[in-house]
Every structure is written in C-alpha cells, then in structure tokens.
Specification:
The protein is an alpha/beta fold and 286 residues long. It is 42% helix and 18% strand. It is built from eight helices and nine strands. Bound molecules: S-adenosylmethionine.
Amino acid sequence: MSIASNVLRRAFRAATSLQSFMLDELGAAKVDAKKMAAAFDRLVNRSALDQRERRRRTFQSIYNRGVWGKDETTRFFSGVGSNPAAAEFYVGQMAALLERHAKELGRPLTIVDLGCGDFRIGKALVERLPALTYIGCDIVPELIAYNAARYTSARVRFQTLDAVCDPLPEGDVCLVRQVFQHLTNNDILSVLTHMPYPCAYVSEGQPVRRIGPVNPDKVVGASVRFDWRTGRGRGVELNQPPFDLPSQEVFRFSLPPNEVIITERLDLTSGALAKGLANKASAVSR
Ligand SMILES: C[S@@+](CC[C@H](N)C(=O)[O-])C[C@H]1O[C@@H](n2cnc3c(N)ncnc32)[C@H](O)[C@@H]1O
C-alpha cells in the first residue's frame, strides 16, 4: 500500500473517531444529529478512499448511528418513509401491479429489491403475495446477515452488493425504493445502466414545492437533495437531465407536511433506452 493511501486511511480513521466523539457529545446536548451526519457525508466523500468502500462505510455508519431513526423492534431502521401507513399504501399498490406482471408472464414472479434496507416493505410484500420469490439486496453486509438470519425461506433470500458496480441478480421486476435519493447522479446512472431487468419501479421522495435546477447532484449519504423541513428544492427526477428517461408515474403517497413519495415505472427493454443510458454513463465518467 502506498504511503499516500496509508496517510489517507489514517486521516479517515481519525476523522471518523472525531465525528463519533462529536456526535456523542453534541447529541447529548440535543444538537441536530442530521446536520452532523451531513457534515460527515461531505467529509467521507472528500477522502480518497475507494468509492465502493466509501459507499459501504457511509451506509454502515448511518445504521450504526441510527441517523434515520430507531425502532426497538429491530437493530436496523431504514427511516420513516417505510412507517406503517407509507408501507401499507406502497405494498397495496405494488402487490396489484406485481400480480398483473405475473399474470402477463403466466408464472410466479421473482423480484429484486435493490437497497432493501430493514425489509419492512419486502416482508409485507412477501406476506401479501404467496407465490412471489423475493431477493433483497443491500450494500450493508451486517444488515443483510441480520435479515438473512431471520427471514430466509424457500422464496426469500438476501445478497450483499453495491448496486452501483456489482453484478445484479436475475429477476423479472426490480424495486428501488428511496435509494437513489441518497446517491450521486453518476451512481444512479451506473445502477440504471447495468440493470438486467425489463421493468423497474423506482420510488423517490419529492418536495411539495419543486424549486431550483433539476437533479442537483449530492454526495452519497443520509441526506436527500431537497430540504425536507421546508418542502422546497428538487428530488431525483428520472425524466429530466442527466437521466432523461421515459418514466411514468404509477402512484404517489403524501408524507405531510412537506414530502410526497412518488413511484415511477421504467421500461428498460428498449435497446435505444439502454444505449442512451450507456452513452450517458460513459460521458459522465470521462
Ligand atoms: C432509505 S433506505 C430504504 C430502504 C428500503 N428500500 C425502504 O424503502 O424501506 C436506503 C437503503 O439503500 C441502501 N443502499 C444505498 N446505496 C446502495 C448501493 N449502492 N447498493 C445497495 N444498497 C444501497 C442503504 O444501505 C439502505 O439500506
């Protein structure tokens, strides 16, 4: 290992310890932990650590610190966007759509849930659709081990992977719920470019007031693109540059007062679409 990368690793470890100390101390003083987390996101993204490792560490840290909240029933908590009302609505809508896909295919479906998180959503879907095979994928290995130990069955399995750069398991339909909002625009393009699925349903939080330039970029981390306290800004909009995808809204759920979760369908079978995405991905990585 080069001296430079050793120095960077040491600096990262020192920064992580400092951040941990500050979170503990300031957290006790009721300082906004989310502000600290956003600062940590920026710090991690500035370091020269390998991008893949950086993403993994970022989401591990989010879960370890309970940045998205806590729930006494589970060691991992993926955020209020999957609370009972939001989950129930999503599962009801998605179950109907998935049943239609299965009918069209004439056989039971396999779905791949990229960024499955704490499996609250996946579990409800699996209970609702008894013929469904479910593959939950996430970048956080200990979260996947936790889910796998509790929920693996003949039709439920889990896989640790980074959806940005790892090969994705085969399936009929892909679900990506509240994952892109935490990634950079380049990362989103990379995921979309190598999805081996004919159809994906992407759900993203959106502000109630869309203000400012479309698809502002962000560093990887717990925060989203818009200000959820005021409901102003922009979320990820797949039908706008740099994505320009023919996405189609299928349903939306309001999270008062400032947010709405919009689910869009992407048909990825078109060769032109795949080629367009690949061109964009190579353009942004140059
Ligand atoms: C806000 S949570 C959403 C969880 C779940 N989809 C839900 O709706 O409840 C985002 C999840 O995406 C995962 N994630 C983020 N980047 C990822 C990546 N590159 N590959 C796989 N999973 C990722 C995080 O670890 C986290 O569990």
